[in-house]
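ugh ok so i messed up the first submission bc i forgot one of the chains. this is the corrected input, ALL of the components this time, i swear. 224 residues overall. if the numbers dont match what u have on ur side tell me asap before i send this to the collaborators (the ones from the other lab, u know who)
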Amino acid sequence: DGGITQSPKYLFRKEGQNVTLSCEQNLNHDAMYWYRQDPGQGLRLIYYSQIVNDFQKGDIAEGYSVSREKKESFPLTVTSAQKNPTAFYLCASSPFTGGVYEQYFGPGTRLTVT
Amino acid sequence: KQEVTQIPAALSVPEGENLVLNCSFTDSAIYNLQWFRQDPGKGLTSLLLIQSSQREQTSGRLNASLDKSSGRSTLYIAASQPGDSATYLCAVTAGNQFYFGTGTSLTVIP
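and heres the new structure output, hopefully the right one now
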């Protein structure tokens, strides 16, 4: 089945530790995105990538880092510099071709930092 | 910058009622508009995509309309069911980014 997988579903870390969230897609999509979702707020864009080995900062990139070494993978690292990392993280992909930009989402990872 | 607003933030209706969810956006220069459903603790599931050249899309009991000139979209749900209870989000594509509303939380009461 084609889709987007995120792992793990739940992640717990101590303050001061870096943590990496996994996102893999087998839809052959060019573009991939990371969003953060907090209660009562909309989705906020952290980083996005349209092609391999290239990515751009979104609205709230501070304290996060990404890599795009393979088309199907776009891992997100939450660093100790992120002041309030506890949130629900969503990965998405889009074919980004032909003028029809439809996004597909993974199931999300809930990160809790104490 | 594009801003997307969804009103109301929450809606409660009895089962069987038809309902309309609203989405408005500030810049009409969009590629398309997408409606999503999100269940608690889950990712977003795409419901309907309306391209900028289209006026509406239908899928089963769902009908979404788009009026670019006025910056509005509506999602019409016919004969609502308890299983429709979820948060509904709209998103517009502009430039190379997607802009999301904060969603409408729908509760359908049996």
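quick check: The two ends of chain B are 41 Å apart (CA to CA). that seems consistent at least. Chain B has a mean pLDDT of 95.
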